[in-house]
Write a structure and sequence with these properties.
The structure holds 2 protein chains of 2 kinds. Chain A is α/β, with parallel strands linked by helices. Helices cover 32% and strands 24% of the residues of chain A. In chain A, strand 8, helix 4 and strand 9 form a beta-alpha-beta unit. A 5-stranded parallel sheet of chain B has the order 7-6-5-8-9. By secondary structure, chain B is α/β, with parallel strands linked by helices. In chain B, helix 1 crosses helix 5, helix 2 packs across helix 11 and helix 5 crosses helix 11. In chain B, strand 5, helix 6 and strand 6 form a beta-alpha-beta unit. Classes of the chains: A alpha/beta, B alpha/beta.
């Protein structure tokens, strides 16, 4: 059965297209656009109501908390949150319990996600067994089970020799390695950016050099091994500069930033708001501005939600004891739109950072409106205001610094492989 | 999360959590009230009925002798019922959460919680969750604040220096880990002290400490020059022999207050210390017991200052 979505503002971030039009889908794929789509026969027609039709969002980091942390969130609740936020594909980091270091586990997770028939799930496998940073995982087996990349999530590999070998092994098979740059010794014990706010509030600091020094080491290992490296969650001005240079040098690298770090700084901690306890920490206004600009100029490839649902018990604690992380799947589109507005970017250019750019990192065909691409689409109103409250969120995690904020951009319909998986 | 969580809707003191952002008139009100209580503490019958029928819970998640005792004396002199809870030894070790502990005590009809906790910000968390008629007084949280210590330091300075204008105050030692230093710096700034200095090696000064409105010195001799007030901070033993400091001996030589360094300050300078002291480390005995030292009067003033805080808060 073919479906014609008519009367909408069709935006393709990849080509920059932004004009009224129609999209014809069938067999889970995009079949035709505009005049060609309209002339199709035997298609069911739906009225887009003048809303924006764009590729569904691709989120490079969303914790679904399964297996192991079902009291914080379940696959079902977070997949609901994903499609409600217009996220049609997501990569989940391996820091579950047990970690994603065995093919059987990855296979089970993928089957369960598939059975829910919501967003597409791309598991990121553990780079080392139990994320301990000692022994390599069976990367090739894990890749066969569906892992798209290998990562340590927020757990460091202390032993650089192990890291070097892991890069060599991953490079052998051409598997991408996704790493956060943070020196564990410099970051040890820290809970906030080592700056004015930590000084004022008496919080143990994590210096910016924890990121820049670790990033220097990672980039050197890329030069040595040729491994494809994706840097996760940049947080400092210095790291943006290092990435700019690394790309100019032609290294096979890409990077992302979390939506929180584009919009918030250490100042937002206010009087110890535990929802602003994040990994990496929120840094200074200068860092925030550098991240926002780096994302606009393309040094930073994409914006992700770094979705981390934490239950109330994990946050109702003194700042330093609170569990890090913020819920984000349902905030990714509004926060991307807010960023694009602030930087004066077109809608297509804005959406690129959450659609076609992360698609390229993942190596998938979605994230663009091309004939033959998967029909993972969203219809949304880019102007519709959202007053963010905890009960609005489908995610089990209500932990966000944006509670009570006025945001814009509400998803009305989400399609994955041509099927409507969310509609209001 | 916005707004000053210490003040009620009328701008009065609801909780005392930090001297950071505490309005000048409230700081002065506390100091003036403390002065009126100073007489009480010297009387034969050292009691006033201001807190009669009120329950003060001393909730110490971290060990303390001096602060807990002076709060207890202050509350008793105001005729309150005082309940001392050494929580570190009971509920927390059984896994009860901080807020559950507070909720249970709240069910026992507490009026005031005096809280000490090893984590910065813990009293803010408690203050957000207590009932509207309950008050929280921060008796020291992590590295963040120790507002009653800051106030008693301000009281001591005003007592000996008759005011704050034109003063140079030097705070020496482990500023990085010191809640006492942070509270005093904010209080001194609020009261208009023109020159606040912090002195210590880079390992013990927090990054961007100048943003608190102070001048940083790594040379103690330069930092002490012409100072009116010297505040020595306690250096905890566990800071020694690691990556922060090589040894007590070297610290004493470069940052300890010795008679030879004291002469660089003004002739009528006063020397303060929040206690407990490490004699021979941050301060030499001859200075601690010498004519410039006001360390023991600080302890005495601490009772009047805590009486003032408790009575003002309970009255709001």
């Amino acid at each position: 059965m073919k479906l014609l979505i008519a009367n909408c503002r069709v935006v393709d971030p990849e080509s920059g297209r932004d004009k009224p039009g129609e999209v014809l889908i069938g067999d889970g794929r995009i079949l035709a656009l505009d005049a060609e789509a309209k002339s199709a026969t035997a298609a069911r027609r739906v009225d887009g109501g003048g809303l924006v039709l764009a590729p569904g969002l691709i989120d490079l980091s969303a914790r679904l908390r399964e297996p192991g942390f079902e009291y914080k969130a379940t696959l079902e609740s977070e997949m609901d949150a994903a499609v409600a936020g217009g996220v049609t594909s997501l990569a989940c980091p391996p820091d579950t319990d047990p970690p994603l270091d065995e093919p059987g586990l990855v296979d089970m997770l993928r089957r369960r996600a598939k059975a829910l028939e919501r967003a597409r799930l791309y598991p990121v496998g553990a780079l080392s067994v139990k994320l301990k940073g000692e022994a390599l995982t069976e990367m090739a087996e894990l890749a066969e089970a569906g892992c798209v990349a290998f990562s340590q999530a927020n757990t460091p590999i202390r032993d650089l020799r192990v890291l070097w070998r892991a890069f060599q092994y991953a490079a052998t098979f051409g598997f991408p390695v996704w790493m956060r740059a943070e020196d564990p010794w410099l970051a040890r014990g820290g809970v906030a950016h080592d700056g004015a706010i930590a000084t004022r509030l008496g919080l143990a600091g994590i210096p910016s050099s924890a990121e820049t020094i670790a990033l220097g080491a990672l980039l050197q290992l890329v030069r040595e091994t040729g491994a494809h490296l994706h840097l996760c969650r940049l947080s400092t001005l210095g790291a943006v500069g290092q990435m700019r240079a690394a790309k100019a040098e032609g290294l096979p690298v890409s990077c992302d930033v979390s939506a929180h770090h584009v919009h918030l700084s250490e100042m937002d901690i206010g009087y110890f708001d535990a929802n602003c306890r994040l990994e990496p920490p929120l840094r200074s206004q200068r860092d925030r501005e550098a991240l926002s600009r780096g994302l606009a100029e393309g040094t930073i490839d994409c914006m992700c939600s770094d979705h981390t649902p934490v239950d109330a018990d994990g946050k109702q604690l003194p700042f330093g004891e609170a569990e890090p992380g913020a819920t984000g799947l349902e905030l990714l589109l509004p926060l991307a739109l807010k960023w694009g507005q602030e930087r004066g970017l077109s809608l297509a250019d804005t959406l690129k950072r959450v659609t076609s750019a992360p698609a390229r990192v993942l190596g998938v065909a979605s994230g663009r409106l091309e004939i033959g691409a998967p029909a993972d689409l969203i219809l949304f109103d880019p102007q519709e205001p959202i007053h963010l409250t905890a009960d609005r969120l489908k995610s089990q995690g209500k932990n966000t610094p944006f509670l009570g904020h006025e945001l814009i951009g509400r998803v009305r319909t989400t399609l994955v492989a041509g099927n409507i998986v969310y509609q209001v | 999360m916005r707004g000053n969580p210490q003040l009620n809707r009328n701008g009065e003191l609801q909780h005392l959590l930090s001297l950071d952002g505490l309005p000048r008139d409230i700081v002065l009100q506390i100091l003036d009230t403390a002065e009126s209580f100073a007489g009480v503490t010297e009387r034969e019958v050292k009691k006033v009925p201001l807190l009669r029928g009120k329950s003060v819970f001393n909730l110490f998640f971290e060990p303390s002798t001096r602060t807990r005792t002076t709060f207890e004396i202050a509350a008793k002199r105001l005729s309150a019922d005082v309940i001392n809870l050494n929580v570190g030894a009971s509920s927390q070790t059984k896994g009860e959460s901080l807020l559950d502990t507070v909720a249970n005590l709240s069910a026992m009809q507490a009026d005031l919680f005096v809280v000490r906790h090893a984590s910065s910000g813990a009293p803010f968390l408690i203050a957000r969750h207590v009932r509207p008629h309950e008050h929280v007084v921060n008796a020291g949280d992590g590295r963040h604040a120790h507002p009653t210590q800051g106030l008693l330091d301000l009281y001591t300075i005003r007592h000996y220096k008759k005011g704050f204008s034109g003063l140079t105050v030097a705070i020496v030692g482990d500023v990085l880990h010191s809640r006492v230093a942070r509270s005093l710096i904010h209080g001194l700034g609020t009261l208009g002290v023109p020159e606040i200095r912090v002195i210590g090696p880079q390992t013990l000064l927090p990054p961007g400490v100048e943003s608190l409105g102070v001048r940083a010195f790594s040379d103690m001799r330069a930092g002490l020059a012409r100072a009116d007030v010297i505040v020595m901070l306690r250096l905890q033993n566990e800071r020694m022999g690691g990556a922060l400091l090589p040894s007590a001996q070297e610290f004493n030589k470069y940052y300890g207050l010795t008679p030879e360094k004291l002469v660089l300050a003004k002739a009528d300078a006063i020397v303060m210390h929040p206690g407990p002291m490490n004699r021979g480390v941050e301060i030499d005995s001859s200075v601690a017991d010498g004519p410039h030292s006001v360390i023991l009067p600080q302890v005495t003033f601490g009772i009047a200052v805590r009486m003032a805080v408790l009575s003002i808060i309970a009255g709001n």
